[in-house]
Amino acid sequence: MKCDKKDLLLYAVTDRNWLHGETLYEQVEKALKGGATFVQLREKQLDQEHFLEEAKEIKKLCKQYHVPFVINDNVEIAVLMDADGVHVGQSDMEAGNVRKMLGDDKIIGVSAQTVEQAVLAQQRGADYLGVGAVFPTGSKDDADDVSHETLKAICEAVQIPVIAIGGISKNNVMELAGSGICGIAVISAIFAQSDIEHAASELKILTEKMVNND
């Protein structure tokens, strides 16, 4: 399964901080109903066994909605449960090595903060880039801020699709118009909202407008 630009429009990254008695599965389904076009399962605390179990369930769900499903960081789990791909950060395994483990038909996303990192990730076989944080964010402790000039420069320097991540909400998404990105990755803008389906739907409409404003 290869990465299509339009699949990256509204990229939902999971977080179990806001479950409030629901399961992650239920919340992901609401995001998909609302129009999420891509799902990344991000688990920092779960042990391998539960992570694997959850990943298999959510993969099935994404398949029903014809939405790509990738695993954050954990290449081993992605291989074991045959995810559509994996997303790695700069401090994780390098894209070329991930490709060797996953095979040619899987999606590899790489986080980048600079033009140099972006170009290198493309050379090593990344299918798309996640660039950020484009706004201040509470979700990632180590997120480096990326200026809108840098975001634009990265989009101009690579041929692969670029999505912005970090602190994006319905209130600021339009500020990214003209940068060259093909979509946004969000966590709290979907999963921390009281009505997840509505939040995803609203964000998708705004993101389409922002991307088409380029």
UniProtKB/TrEMBL annotation:
Which Pfam families does the entry mention? Answer: TMP-TENI
Catalytic activity field: 4-methyl-5-(2-phosphooxyethyl)-thiazole + 4-amino-2-methyl-5-(diphosphooxymethyl)pyrimidine + H(+) = thiamine phosphate + diphosphate; 2-(2-carboxy-4-methylthiazol-5-yl)ethyl phosphate + 4-amino-2-methyl-5-(diphosphooxymethyl)pyrimidine + 2 H(+) = thiamine phosphate + CO2 + diphosphate; 2-[(2R,5Z)-2-carboxy-4-methylthiazol-5(2H)-ylidene]ethyl phosphate + 4-amino-2-methyl-5-(diphosphooxymethyl)pyrimidine + 2 H(+) = thiamine phosphate + CO2 + diphosphate
What is the main EC category here?
transferase
Q: Which residues are in the Thiamine phosphate synthase/TenI domain?
A: 10-190
Q: Which GO terms describe its molecular function?
A: magnesium ion binding; thiamine-phosphate diphosphorylase activity
Extract the coiled-coil ranges from the record.
none
User: Under which pathway is this protein filed?
Assistant: Cofactor biosynthesis; thiamine diphosphate biosynthesis; thiamine phosphate from 4-amino-2-methyl-5-diphosphomethylpyrimidine and 4-methyl-5-(2-phosphoethyl)-thiazole: step 1/1
Top-rank taxon of the source lineage equals Bacteria
Keyword Magnesium appears in the UniProt entry: yes
The free-text cofactor remark is: Binds 1 Mg(2+) ion per subunit.
Which InterPro entries does this chain map to? Aldolase_TIM (IPR013785), ThiamineP_synth_sf (IPR036206), ThiamineP_synth_TenI (IPR022998), TMP_synthase (IPR034291)
- Annotated binding of 2-[(2R,5Z)-2-carboxy-4-methylthiazol-5(2H)-ylidene]ethyl phosphate, by residue: 137-139, 167, 187-188
Enzyme Commission number(s): 2.5.1.3
Q: Does the keyword Protein biosynthesis apply?
A: no
Q: Where does 4-amino-2-methyl-5-(diphosphooxymethyl)pyrimidine bind?
A: 40-44, 72, 111, 140
Any single Gene Ontology cellular-component annotation: cytoplasm
Q: Which UniProt keywords apply?
A: Magnesium, Metal-binding, Thiamine biosynthesis, Transferase
Q: Which CDD domains match?
A: TMP_TenI
Cofactor(s) listed in the protein's UniProt record = Mg(2+)
Which GO annotations describe the biological process of this protein? thiamine biosynthetic process; thiamine diphosphate biosynthetic process
Residues reported in the UniProt entry to bind Mg(2+) = 73, 92
> What NCBIfam families has UniProt attached to this entry?
thiE (TIGR00693)
Against HAMAP family, the record matches this protein to: TMP_synthase
Tell me the function of this protein: Condenses 4-methyl-5-(beta-hydroxyethyl)thiazole monophosphate (THZ-P) and 2-methyl-4-amino-5-hydroxymethyl pyrimidine pyrophosphate (HMP-PP) to form thiamine monophosphate (TMP).
This chain's protein is named Thiamine-phosphate synthase
Q: Which organism is it from?
A: Amedibacterium intestinale
